[in-house]
Structures are given as C-alpha cells and as structure tokens.
Amino acid sequence: MTVHNSSDALTAEMMAIGAAARDAVRAMREAGDEAKTKALRVAAAAIRSRAAEIMAANQGDIEAAKAVNMPAPMVDRLMLNDARIEAMAKGIEDVAALPDPVGRELARWSRPNGLDIARVSTPIGVIGIIYESRPNVTADAGALALKSGNVAILRGGSDSIRSAGAIHAAMVEGLKAAGLPEHAIQVVKTSVINEARVPVLAHLEGLCHVYLHSAADLEKSRSIALNAKMRRTSVCGAAETLLIDRAVLTSHGVPVLEDLAKAGCEIRGDEAVRAVYPAAKPATEEDWKTEYLDAIIAVRAVDGLEQAIAHIETYGSHHTDSIVTEDAAAAENFMNSVDSAIVLWNASTQFADGGEFGMGAEIGIGTGKMHARGPVGAEQLTTFKYVVRGNGQTRP
What we know:
With 396 residues, the chain is of the alpha/beta class. The protein has helices at residues 7-30, 33-49, 51-67, 72-78, 82-96, 136-147, 161-177, 218-230, 249-262, 271-276, 305-315, 328-337, and strands at residues 105-110, 116-123, 126-130, 151-155, 185-187, 200-201, 208-212, 239-245, 266-269, 281-282, 296-302, 320-324, 342-345, 365-366, 374-375, 382-389.
C-alpha cells in the first residue's frame, strides 16, 4: 500500500486518477455490447490463468492480517482459494451474458404537439466504489461497471490491497483485448478516496433479522435460522438478531438455539430467552444495534408480529429481514410493513446477493432510496436521459 505524508501528493494522485477516468468516459459510453462482452470474457479467462499469481498476492494479505490479529471471520472474508477464484471468474462470465443495460428504452410517449419523447438508459459516467476487504468485489465491481458502460475507480480495504492489484491486472487484460481504455477500471492504492470528486456508491452495515412467527414450521425455523447466521458469518446478509414469538419460544426457540450453539454460535438473549435457554449470555441494549460479522447472535422474545416489526424498525439497517411462518397473511403484512431493501418469507437472509438474484454479481446491497436499492447490479449502475424527436416545433 502506498502511504502519503503529504496531502498535496495525495491530491495529485487522485487528480491524475480522476483525469484518466474522465478521458475514458466517452469511449465506455459509446462501447457496444460486443466489445464489453469480449472484455469481460477475456478478463474471466485471465482470472483463471493468473490464479497462482492472485493466490500468492492474497497469501501476502492473509499473512499481514494475521500479524495484526485480525479476527478469524474477517480473515475468512479476505481469503481466496481455488473455489472462490473460480466463482469470481464465473461471476464475470455471468455478467458478460446479461443483456446490455445501456440504450434500453424505458418509456416512450407522444405529446399533442407531435413531439416524440423517449426515456433511455445511459451510463452514470465515473463511479467511485469503496468496499471492504473482500477481494472478489474488485472483480464484481469492475465487471458491473464495465457492462454498464461506466468508468470505475475502486478502493477496497487496505487489508486486501495486494489481492486487489492482482485481480485488477486481469480486468485490465480484458479491457486491452477488447480495445477499450485500460483506465476504465482503476484501483486506488492509497488509504483514502475522500478527495475524489466523483459519485460514490456506499454500502452500509447489514443488521439483518430473522423472525420466527407463532405459525412458523419447526424444521424451516431450524434450517433457516442456522443458515442465516452460520453459513458465512462475515457477509452482510448474515443474520445478527433472531426474534422469536413468545408463543413458540420453547417449542421452536430452544431447538433453534441448540442448533446454533452446536455450530459454535454464541447466544445472547433477553430475560425471556434466558429463562428457557439458561446457557445464553445476557443481551444488552447494544446487542440489538450490533452487526457482529461473527458467530454471535442476539435473541429476543416478542409478543407477536407488530412487536417484531417495531423492533426491526427501531434497530435494523433496512438491509435484509426474514419472516418464518406458514401464515400467508402474516407474511404479507411483514413484507409490506418492514421497510428494508430485501424482505423474505421462509428463506435465509444469506440470499441477499446479486448473484443469487440472477444479476451475475453485485457491488453491494443499497439500503437508501434515492437511486439503486437492494442488490446493485449492472442495470442499477445506469441512469437515463430523455430523447425528444420533433419536426420543427417551437414553444408558444
């Protein structure tokens, strides 16, 4: 990682990156789907052919992380292996196979004066993307920006800087092979991107909930809660709080908590939970607000659907929340009332992923409302313009 002692040096580097990105904007905006697809397919092949190089770079990141006692779940998030590298390459190929999101006619209408007006999708332009220390996001974000005709300035966590550099080299190989500007995807090697004057898409915390309703099926409750928490504890879709309807606290709650404990999860419960499951540690107010990204879960007993929704509204991050129930009316009420980017019925929160949504990949789960919400894929990285066709009209 490059360390700058001078704000002038940092500013100069960011200005150079920004200028190179701006110079690539028109070529990317006008790039056809054939060129973009070729760049992505070559990049995917380069990820595979450079696997040894990428693994070596990643090993350097892993050793550095362990040297500073990074928690094990965070090391897992950082780590690459053969399966994850293949998944990264396959994700790029999946993005390549998507329809071109640029140039789509979103709406069209005619005015009484004869004007023909169309709303057409276009690239955003230059996008700065800041993300955590997950090396695969370098490939996912670069691929999605490329497919959507954008120029990307990527800044991953400093812990993954070696891995990001090796993956970036494969992405550049794809750009060059397709005759596209190599500066269409750039990686910032410094520790900040605060000086960049480009749009920034930020993905915030995932404080996700699973609610076991009074009409929940026991086996679904057990499998969903266990998967939502323990499949991978370090991903943003991991459940951090389990809400259990008081009516099924003993019949469903105890087996679910036993499953979690056997899998190595620490249980932190309120008084009602600890009364039926004494092995739980006492939960504090802070636990309801915490994204652990670890094998820890906060558990609370609630009196019905409305109390569960109120808890999620108070403490959630509007990311992903799930209800487990056989009551369709309760499920619809939950999904209509919970104001999160993703709401699920009888499914694990770990489905909060663009690849699982058929988007090929994603650069994060948008929790805001002003632009993209939910998984941010290629289509979500476009904006639109109005194309107005006339035959001599003037405004009175």
